[in-house]
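Lab manual, section 2.4: Encoding a predicted structure.

Procedure: take the sequence of the chain (149 residues), apply the prediction step described in section 2.3, and record the output as structure tokens. A sample record is shown.
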Amino acid sequence: MTDETNEVVGSNSRVLADITVKLMDGSIADSTKVSGKPSWMIMGDGSFSEAFEAYLIGAQVNDVLTFELPAKDAFGELEPDNIHFMDISMFPQDISIEKGTILSFTQANGMELPGIIREIEANSVKVDFNHPLAGEDVVFEIEIKRIAA
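Recorded output:
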């Protein structure tokens, strides 16, 4: 890939953008504006849903796009198979296990996977490995900074 600038977002473009994700109540769930570091998106690489990419196709530098996506096209639906109950003894004693805490778990292949503590009852800990925004309809605000081939 080159850093050659294109005029519009195409199906294989690399797009540098400020991205803000809002919940339906208007609260901000995440934003690159907080860090001041826009994010690169690679169109067509499978990282984003077709519905998401469809809003960007044809956009130009400095365009600000605002669109709503249902959960299935944003971060996916909640998958019950991604919720696990673990015995509290499986957690290191030096960490605080509280509802809402996000912990990193090492998978058998060595990859790290974040899990959210959803409930603690007696010796059972309910850990949710779904994306934190899974099941949420969201609003995206995308400000295109740069388009590259």
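Check your result against the sample. Residues 75 and 131 are 7 Å apart (CA to CA).
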